[in-house]
Amino acid sequence: MKKITFLILILVFFSCKKDAKNPDSVTTKAIITDSTIYSSTAIQNYLKLNPKFSEYQIIGLHNPKEFTVKELTFPVKENDFDYNKSADFKYFIATTFDLNKTNYKVITYISYGENGSKVLNIQLNSYLSGAQVDALLLDCRFTFETEYYRNFSINSNGTITLKKSAIDSLLFNEEGDIIGQKAVKDTTTEVVLYKMNSMGHFIKS
User: Fold this and answer.
1) Whole-number Cα distances in Å, 119 to 58, 67, 86
2) pLDDT range class, residue 179, cuts 50, 70, 90
3) pLDDT average, residue stretch 89-96
4) Which of 7, 11, 135, 179 is deepest in the core (most CB within 10 A)?
5) Measuring CA to CA, how many Å separate 183 from each of 39, 171, 178, 199?
6) From CA 117, how far away is CA 123, in angstroms rounded?
7) What is the pLDDT of residues 187-200, one digit of tens each?
8) What pTM does this model have?
């Protein structure tokens, strides 16, 4: 019994010693978890890849809404490929939240890409007194010669992190024809940072 008690005391001692060397290890993890308002992980269950067409579908979200004329033409930041909204598709509200007296909505919708292919989009809108202030494209997913997607995180300190990824797996000849696939895919990534100001504008860092 004394040996068991001694072993327990040793384990407790080294555990406390380890925490003393790195006092922020536990609290840092809690802060990171608490600071995330919404992220790619949260919306993942609403996205489904159709392998036949290599296109994403929106599932599990209800009450689709039609875009107004103003919403269709409202400029969207980080819309790198200019895949604009279409009245052919409705949008879904994934979540809403309030920060600094500004209301925010995360919406998801389909748009047309190259040669009529379908592109999945996730967009963050900001509103003051019901009027839209700004729009930021959080995610854009498609496969057309190159597979493209983003991961994002919206944080309670007003920062937004976008990680853009492009995966190139095709081989081309000098004429530009596809002749096969690369043994090792080429992947490029870019991290973009934004800040939500007190008026609901998305400011690029």
Assistant:
1) 11, 17, 11
2) low
3) 98
4) 135
5) 32, 9, 14, 49
6) 19
7) 899 999 999 999 99
8) 0.78
CA–CA separation, 127 vs 124, rounded Å?
A: 10
Judged by phi (left if over 0) then psi (alpha if -120 to 50, else beta), residue 151 lies in beta
Handedness of CA 35, 41, 47, 51 (dihedral sign): positive
Torsion, Cα of 197, 84, 91, 126 (10° steps):
10
DSSP-H helix ranges across the chain = 2-21, 25-35, 40-43, 69-73
Indicate the pLDDT class of residue 158, thresholds 50, 70 and 90.
Answer: very high
User: Which phi and psi angles does 63 have, rounded to 5°?
Assistant: 55, 60
Q: How many residues comprise the chain?
A: 205
Residue 23 binned pLDDT confidence (cut-offs 50, 70, 90): very low
